[in-house]
Amino acid sequence: MQQSRDIAAEMLNRIRRITIILNPAAGRGQARRQRDELESFMGRAVRNLHDIVSWKIVETTAQGSATQLAREAVAAGVQ
Fold this sequence. Notes:
Blueprint: H1 2-14, E1 16-22, H2 30-33, H3 35-45, E2 53-59, H4 65-75
Parallel strand pairs: 1-2
């Protein structure tokens, strides 16, 4: 049983977490308009790595929110 836990823990340690912080107002709104393209690109980039890479896009909502989003990502294990 301990060996199974060790293997599970090792697998979780190998998972790479990616958080993309997107400012939707950047580039006069261009960033918001290109979000779908970014999601598609990321999906293709990690297609064969879906079992070891997880990713998400979070959007800023106000001045300073990127800092808070980055802190939350780090707290969630994003490196």
